[in-house]
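Final report, closing paragraph on structural work. Over the funding period we assembled a curated collection of sequence-structure pairs, and we close with a single example.
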Amino acid sequence: MKSKLEDLLEAGKFSFLNENYDEAIKYFQKILKKDSQNAETYYNLGIVYEAKNMLKEAKEAFNKTLEINPKYKLAEEHLAKLVGE
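Its predicted structure, as stored:
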């Protein structure tokens, strides 16, 4: 059986795919209240912020992802793209 956090992560991703960005952010923030060291959630939050053109927040989320997991390649790539802009 999946954990509640995994369910929230899936719900957040689903919301993002349906362009319900604010709803996705709420799901991801709920996860981070319970697990503040969840790199995947910070990464997904960064993606949502990037989609909303909230670049400062996106950079912060990708930086936090890399702080928790320095080998998170996708976060590194997104951050490099944002910094390069």
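The domain at 4-84 is CATH 1.25.40.10 (Serine Threonine Protein Phosphatase 5, Tetratricopeptide repeat). The chain is about 80% helix and 0% strand. We thank the funder for supporting this effort.
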